[in-house]
Target: Bacteriocin immunity protein
Amino acid sequence: MDHGHKDLREVQLLISELPKTKEFTENPDFKSLYLSLKNEETQKYTPAAINSMSKNISMYLMTHNYSAPKELIDLQKILVKLNTKQNSLRHIPFLFNLY
Model:
């Protein structure tokens, strides 16, 4: 996947920006979320890791009245885009299956 590396760099960059936010120093839940995202980031770049990171961010947003730093929202947008890309690529072989 050509764009995977570019998108992965964006994900890594946004995760590295999270500790610089005010929320990081003031909210232990946000810090915990960051540590979980950092842990997922060190694993292989797979659809499962992308899905897990997106799910963790969604849970954080739901439990904090959808209030979060812009960096976290941007990260979630990229993860959703990657997840959609992965799901659409998974179905391509079936489109060309001629019986």
Remarks:
- The helical segments are 2-17, 22-26, 28-42, 47-63, 70-90, 92-95.
- The longest helix spans residues 70-90.
- Residues 7 and 36 are 19 Å apart (CA to CA).
